[in-house]
Amino acid sequence: MKNRHFEYCSAAFCQDDKNPNSRNEVPWYAGEKVCRKKPFQKFQKKQIEINKLFKKDKFKNVDKPYTANDLETKSI
What we know:
Blueprint: H1 22-25, H2 42-55, H3 68-73
């Protein structure tokens, strides 16, 4: 049996998630874990960028949840 990344990934959303609605339904907050499966998708790159700002206390919207779709399509 192939090892499926989403079975052990503890990130809010994983690029291997089989739920077709997860990109629009699952919330992620700045500072939370990021899926590390490569190649990184656009939402993962945006999460990493936000987390860098979050660690420096330079990200202002810390209480706002984002979906993978938000991260890929909106200017955040």
